[in-house]
From TrEMBL:
Annotated organism of origin: Clostridium mobile
Keyword Methyltransferase (UniProt): yes
UniProt entry keywords in alphabetical sequence: Cobalamin biosynthesis, Methyltransferase, S-adenosyl-L-methionine, Transferase
InterPro entries: Cbl_synth_MTase_CbiT, Cobalamin_biosynth_MTase, Methyltranfer_dom, rRNA_Ade_Mease_Trfase_CS
Signal sequence segment: none
Keyword Transferase recorded: yes
Protein name: Precorrin-6Y C5,15-methyltransferase (Decarboxylating) subunit CbiT
Matches recorded under CDD domains: AdoMet_MTases
Pathway: Cofactor biosynthesis; adenosylcobalamin biosynthesis
Domain Methyltransferase: 58-161
Top-level taxonomy: Bacteria, Bacillati, Bacillota, Clostridia, Eubacteriales
Length: 212
């Protein structure tokens, strides 16, 4: 058809009958669906925003540092169905929950590495990296894993404290990243009442690595 001429008012509609829109639909996992145990978990609204800012594709390779219950890892693994997600966690209770959630959601493309963030052996490059908190040495942590981020890749970090916010933004700017910060406050009704209960405000930081 590219060699033919048509009126400027023509409209062409192509329909692929082999594609199921239901299968292609992107769905996010709710907090209630995750098995938590006693481990901290990135809450649903923050999780959705953070994952969205990671710019994930079906074949992306993703690293989740300090994975906790694995909520970010599991959600990323469902989106990156043709890629790979690596969850790094040191806490034994959290690791047990990650393995249970991995089995529940059948995420065979999720690889779990047990170890401390600064000393664990993590190999290869990643399209996107998520850091959900810090047990200290935040600047060193960011510098280490930014070396594993591909050019044009995104690193997303979540923090509660202003101190960690400053350290993270300052470190990323020092590395020459394009940096943005979003502060999110979420309140929800409690039970069947109209009373709102507020969660802690969260800082979502996104850093984009320059090409080259």
């Amino acid at each position: 058809m590219k060699n033919k001429e048509f009126s400027s008012l023509c409209v062409l509609l192509l329909e692929n009958e082999e594609v199921s829109l239901e299968e292609e639909k992107l769905s996010f996992i709710s907090d209630e669906d995750f098995i938590r145990g006693n481990c901290p978990m990135t809450k649903e609204e923050i999780r959705i925003l953070s994952v969205a800012k990671m710019n994930l594709y079906k074949n992306s390779r993703v690293l989740d540092v300090g994975a906790g219950t694995g909520s970010i890892s599991i959600q990323a693994a469902k989106i990156c169905s043709e890629g790979e997600v690596v969850a790094l966690e040191k806490d034994s209770d959290a690791l047990e929950v990650i393995y249970i959630n991995k089995e529940k959601f059948q995420t065979d493309n999720l690889i779990v590495i047990e170890g401390e963030a600064l000393t664990a052996k993590v190999e290869g490059k990643f399209n996107s990296i998520f850091i959900g908190g810090s047990g200290g040495n935040l600047s060193d942590l960011i510098k280490k894993y930014c070396e594993m981020l591909m050019d044009g890749g995104k690193i997303v970090l979540n923090f509660i404290t202003i101190n960690n916010l400053y350290i993270a933004m300052d470190t990323l700017m020092e590395l020459g990243y394009k940096v943005k910060c979003t502060q999110v406050s979420v309140s929800k009704t409690k039970g069947q009442t109209y009373m709102l209960m507020a969660n802690n405000p969260i800082f979502i930081i996104e850093g984009e690595k320059n090409n080259g």
